[in-house]
Amino acid sequence: MVTKVFVNLPTTDLERSKAFYTALGCEINPLFTDENAACVVWAEDIFFMVLKREFFATFTDKPIADPNEVAQVSVSFSRDSREDVDDILAKGLAAGGTEPKPAQDYGFMYSRDLDDPDGNSLGFLFMTEEAVENGPEHVAEQSTGS
Predict the structure, then answer these.
(1) Are 25 and 41 in contact (CB under 8 A)?
(2) Beta-bridge partners for 29
(3) Contacts of 142 (CB under 8 A, 6+ apart)
(4) Which of 87, 103, 109, 116 is the most buried (most CB within 10 A)?
């Protein structure tokens, strides 16, 4: 059985969230979407459930953090190239997201962060095949001749 991943995110504006995530290239699954929540499809087995804050609160007795003020989780997605990272950031920024910090370039890995309009943190990264297969230390050793 393949594990499906569901990430639950609070939102103050469900329609704005749906527009933001569809601008990034995601689809909304109408079977699991209503006036309280939307099912954002990232990939065949990865979903975001974007929930109105009041509805999100029905699933926990803990206080719901304001993602503009505190970071509890950051979800990162690999991309096929540096250009793909830049492309999805451009789409997210145009759709109302913000980039909380400059791009990070480590040579073997390039990453950029994007906060959705509610402040939920997303990361997008490209890592060279060599680093994926052998780890970043190996890439560093090769570049320094060690």
Answers:
(1) no
(2) 39
(3) 130
(4) 116
Residue 30: exposure state from Cβ atoms within 10 A (0-12, 13-18, ≥19):
exposed
How far apart are the C-alpha atoms of 21 and 33, rounded to whole Å? 14
What confidence tens digit (pLDDT) does each residue in 87-128 have? 999 999 999 999 999 999 998 899 999 999 999 999 999 998
HEC assignment per residue over 55-123: HHHHHCCCCCCCCCCCCCCEEEEECCCHHHHHHHHHHHHHCCCECCCCCEECCCEEEEEEECCCCCEEE
CA Rg value for the chain: 17
Cα separation of the two ends of the chain: 43
> Locate tokens 């997303």: which residue?
122
